[in-house]
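ok so heres the complex, two chains, lmk if somethin looks off
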Amino acid sequence: MRSPILATGARLLLPLFLGFALYILLRGHNAPGGGFIAGLIAALGFAIVIFADGPEAARRMLRIDPRSLGGIGLVCALIAGGGAALSGGAPFQGIWLDLPVLPLSTVLLFDIGVFLAVIGGVLALIFALEDSGKAGG
Amino acid sequence: MSWILALPILTPFIGAGACLFLRNRKGVGWISVLTALASLGLAVRLLATVIDHGVIAGQVSGWPAPFGITLVADYLSAAMVLITAIIGLATALWAMAEIGPTSARLGWFTLFQTLLGGVTGAFLTGDLFNLYVWFEVLLISSFGLLAIGGSRSATDGAVKYVTLNLIATALFLCAAGLTYGATGTLNMADLHGKVAAHPDQGLMTVIAILFMLAFGMKAAVFPLFFWLPASYHTPHYAVSALFAGLLTKVGVYALIRVFTLIFTGDQGWTHEILLWCACLTMVTGVLGAAAQSDFRKILSFHIVSQIGYMVLGLALMTPLALVGAVFYLLHHIIVKANLFLVAGVSRRLTGGSDLAQIGGLYRAAPFLAVLFLIPAFSLAGFPPLSGFWAKYLLVRAALEEGAWLVAGIALMVGLLTIYSMTKIWAGAFWKPHPGGYEPVLAQLSPRARVLMLTPMAVLAAMTVLIGVMPEPFVTFATTAAQQLLEPDAYIRIVLGARP
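and the predicted structre for the whole thing:
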């Protein structure tokens, strides 16, 4: 059953969830937070859309196959982890770009990778369950 | 050192990523085989390094122990990583003949590689919280692999599996939290001293029991094993084989690691519980198997029964008993995975797994019958196969301790194992097929025949090899047990490890 209240609410909530997820992702750099929990929050936002408008609407909003999203995340994380080999460091050792204001590093890339992998993995799971639920009646 | 330790973990994840992007292509199975081959090479290199240098350790991200995550390999870890890679390669090849494009599109090969990466990570980590993370990786990927079977019973099995395992991981997390609160560290080597020196030893024992519950559930020890027979007979056979070989052994490994390195203060209490759990596990597992009439369900109950032997070795905690436990662990992984692969081929040829409805396999494929008999007799402990030496070591260790009852139980369970194996032999191989048709090996395409039978034959050959020449393997297990009982080198190297 489609509820207009839930559908409208979901559309308002999704940007909120995504914004908060980004905040948690960046906060995780030096404080509790990080890619994993941020990915779960972002996936939750899409999950509400799935429940409100159905998986098709959520797929359109996501624009990209969640499995590919997860794959991109995995590659980012692996690049961040393996990249340390180039500088002769230990696995997953951070490489820092010495910028004056913005401390960019492979640590952030790793967190973003985890973020994307979690969104992709969770959403792929929910979509698969939705599809099998329809197929099974 | 840290890269030698990290690469066997990273490689499966690289393969998982590649399999994910190529999931719609035909060659995705070969990517997984190539990854497994690379993992095998790296595992051999790791083992060679450990044999050359003794215990090796490295720090992820370069944070020194006990603050960062330590990766550490002693004889036991390195051997477990190698055996994981061997089973990984065997099932990767075998799976090419079983996994269709639908399952591949759903990401079967990605999950398969993720699982192997998770198992390897669990064997190599030196940090309790990191071990928890690997358990979660295992749980998520194994849930996916169970669910991809697609049928209603597969989903049912997957839900039971995931619910009961979530309880186990929640207990694990609580125990890890309590440990951290009480000692301020989660590095296993650091914990060795901190736990022993803690003023409140009663609290330490409580935490130890929480760990025992969590790992015991993962290892499928009595009375926490019921999730295993409920789920292992539903998914693809390659998944069953991989789970049977590796998943419960991660729990056994964690038990061995934690109860030789960290919680050794109150052995009269903790190891006594382990001892009786081990005996009950052996007996209930084998009796449960005797009551079953489905190929895979019989084998599933036998996993439970065999776990009892390994825990028995840990519970006795003498040098010889630990040698037996390590030897048993290594021998069992090969044998059990192979038996499930035989079950898979049998299912392809006869169209079922209920022993009342199948038959005629001996006439159809005598070679397959040999491939069944080798691991089956090894499981039961027939000389000169690997299982004989494994049981011999454990029974002798029990007798040396004067534990007559325990030794008797171990021997009786071996006898009952033969009963179940004979039942499978009579049902699936010896009697004619009740459906009135003769299964023939030609039902498998030549490609499937090569892909399925080659890994099985290699695993069977390894079982025979370990049985005929047990000496180097026992020597190896002896060093591994020594390292477990005298963890000074382990602790010194972990705490002094330079990145």
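quick notes: The mean pLDDT of chain B is 89. thats all i got rn
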